[in-house]
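To close the chapter, one final illustration. This time we ask the reader to focus less on the individual chains and more on the assembly as a whole: which components sit near each other, and how the overall shape emerges from the parts.
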Amino acid sequence: MARISFHDLAHAYGPAPSSPEHWALKPMTMTLEDGGAYALLGPSGCGKTTLLNLTSGLLTPTKGRIEFDRVDVTHKTPEERNIAQVFQFPVIYDTMTVYDNLAFPLRNRGVDEATVATRVKGIAGMLDLSSTLQKRASGLTADGKQKISLGRGLVRSDVNVIMFDEPLTVIDPHLKWELRSKLKELHQRIRRTMIYVTHDQTEALTFADKVVVMNDGQVVQIGTPVELFERPRHTFVGHFIGSPGMNLINCDVRDGKAVIGGGEVATENAAKYKGGARTLQLGIRPEFVKFSSEGLPVEVTKVADAGRFNIVSVQAGNQPLKLLVPQGAAIPSGSAKVAFDPARARIYADGWLVGDDARGAAQ
Amino acid sequence: MKKTFDNKAWFLVLPVFLMVLFNSLIPLMTVVNYSVQETFGNNEFFWSGTRWFEQVLHDRQFHESLMRQIIFTGLVLLIQIPLGLAIALCMPRKGPWVSVCLVLIALPLLVPWNVVGSMWNIMALPDIGLLGKAINGLGISFNYTRQPLAAWFTVVLMDVWHWTSLVVLLCYAGLVSIPDAYYQAAQVDGASRWSVFRYIQLPKLKHVLTIAILLRFMDSFMIYTEVIVLTGGGPGSTTKFLSIDLVQKALGGFDLGPAAAFSIVYFLIILFLSWLFYTLMMRGEAK
Amino acid sequence: MSLELRNVTKRVGADTYIYETNLVLADGSLNVLLGPTLAGKTTLMQLMAGLEKPTTGEVWFRGKNVTGVPVQKRNVSMVYQQFINYPNFSVRENIAAPLRVARMNEAEIDRRVMQAAEILRLTPMLDRRPSQLSGGQQQRTAIARAIVKDSDIILFDEPLANLDYKLREELRDELPKLFAQRNCIVVYATTEPAEALLFGGNTATLHEGRITQFCPTARGYRRPKDIVSARVFSDPPINTHAAVKVNGELTLVDGPQWSLGDGARDVPDGNYTIAIRPHHVTMKPVAANSATIEGRVLITELSGSESVIHFKVGNETWVSQSHGIHPVEVGAQARLHVDTDQILYYGPSEELVG
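The assembled structure is written out below.
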């Protein structure tokens, strides 16, 4: 078990680049607390797998330091770091039985057979693999094989951190439910530091106590699932988390008030804007936009029945906007007006939340 | 679930059928035809039944060359497969050296067979050849035109030089197709270099090795040109392998009947041993 | 004028992929095949396309029996789950490929390619190769190729399954718009109820090689005619429980007793299996006729804007889905609110009663 900290860590594939956009992972400083469940969430190519491989030691950073419990491990091998990792595609040792597969990491470290037996049986029980222990691993289905990979990651009692690299990619959708919650349950039972990399918001928010949202090689927000939904610190977080994602409307701020198309709109943070931004946007989740007798004039363009609610698309001037309207509620056609919940409408300057003190920590 | 059945597809296989027919089946039938008849030329044939087969199977010369053939092929496989695998394991998997290594390794395969024979013929000459002279220089008496052991040593060495590359290339292709995740997982699991080989590389190379063994078995069992050029089957008949024996019978003796029977027996031995290898190595695979 | 499957079955060896099926798809209609993996969606599409011949039964198209007619002789386009493009062609040539096969003149090809590219927002990438595109752009190229010629039938086999969910969201939004003006039959296979709903049109729910229900999508979702159809058309899984209805009171086996108020008046008293969707079981009461249910929390899940709780009532596992992010401890006792007006009542042979 360990507290993991990154100090000014950055990585580029190839020589150290001169311009910032060529870093696969831009310089970042961050600490992951001991025993926490973390998720690295972001679209493909955002640098999350790079960060994972730097942590496990499969990659050596171009610059910066990694510490486990204040001990510098930057140049140590994965084995010396004493970590476990589960990969996207199941890795199993074809010629071994399920039991031998699970025992492999223990036996490699010279653990005595009696301990191996108890650990393997315990893990097999947690993952519902007990009945297949004596079978050849190569004969199992994809999700069975991935459970073996998970099991090999979890079997050692002394690892500093367990890492998962999109472990549910090859799992059938109806089995994902089960494995997703199984992992959460395992974390609560063994309370070891875990890092879970994924591009799927449900997997990330379900698994993690804290989610690290990444985009374009940098960390844009670290927060609990509630914070990410309620108070996105960056427009990317608002867009990426939630479906449909947060609405973003170009706006102006005059005298501490947001202005859209000539009309004033109440927001939570416009008063904190100090000027100087290239782009100014108002962010509001579709959940918090309502049809109302007064407010921003819009044209209703499309109503999509999503079962639980209707997703209504409207145009405010030339800017598209989405609303979530509960089933049964009236939806006007043609011209209408919408109002924003002032406590949830926020101004973003160049993508970043205006008046957000914690911004520095996330960068 | 996704199989489409359309019988028209058989037409596409027709050209191959025709080629196989003209290349293999018709010549083979001619051989079968010869093997059960007696001829003295002039296109006159007399039925002789299984006589030629009995003669071949009881022929002491045949027994001896078969024995030599088996020992030679066994030796060659025992050396080339592990050596080829070892070289493949040592080759770099990424970087600028990959193509350099591959070209160097592939070179022997580009040399025509008779040239290989004459190259080694000259190399191993005890008075002027690099190899022959070096060995004699070490104080070991070496003359492959006189000493059977030296002749065998040179023939096996030549074959290893010529064909190990094939095994290397096959194994290398198999090795690079193993996903990186396997090596990373093994690293994380704390596996030793030996464990990685034993539990990841070897199982993943199983199919490739099967193909390598089969190819090398069949080729070495039919070796002719290189040996004929190098030793001509000598000294005496100590390096006279099956194919040399066969050619001597067919061309030298004009015994077309026995030679035809010999060919068929030869063919059946290869067929049987190939099948045996294949089933042994694929055992436990079908499920 | 339509595509018809008449008593069609498909067997391969001892396995039956499609049990006897009758289906009529009207010209110009959007149709969704909804079902889990291996329900028979792909096989059904291959039968429609002519990639497979039915074991028994006939396929009719616009009044003609086309049962044995191979796919080349039918005017069909198909988009697959994998991104399938010609790797050595530019995006422009990829989209133009079916038109070149049809020997259309250059000017017309150009016009149509530009139009398809415009709709699918591929115009800036027309001269790139597929390998230089993102996954979403590759799939949009494949879709453009499918819509560029005037196909009679366009088949989509889980086209969004391999995309990141944000891209999926975008394309889901765009796809139905593409077909608004056309007279072709569109068939769209998916495993996800949400996708079927947003696609609209008609939905056939599939379960183990059988079509269990085929009707307008919204109706199929609101009034599934049997429990199997309800299960196929629900994610997270729909809650089911055995219950007894007497005089406006509903008693769940090993569970609570609810007063139904003025709802469900048309449903006669008796034994039922009730079904209710997870989003009608919420953490806060939202409806006029609301009742409570309690159970031990087994699993909690958070998606971007929703919280899902799995909890145990008697022998059944229930699922609740509420808007917003509300973390709940596993193992705690949860008290949730059920909108009793939304309960579906299924009789002894699992048919919808009310």
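The CA atoms of residues 294 and 335 of chain C lie 5 Å apart. Chain C has two domains: 2-232, 239-346. With these observations in hand, you are ready for the problems at the end of the chapter.
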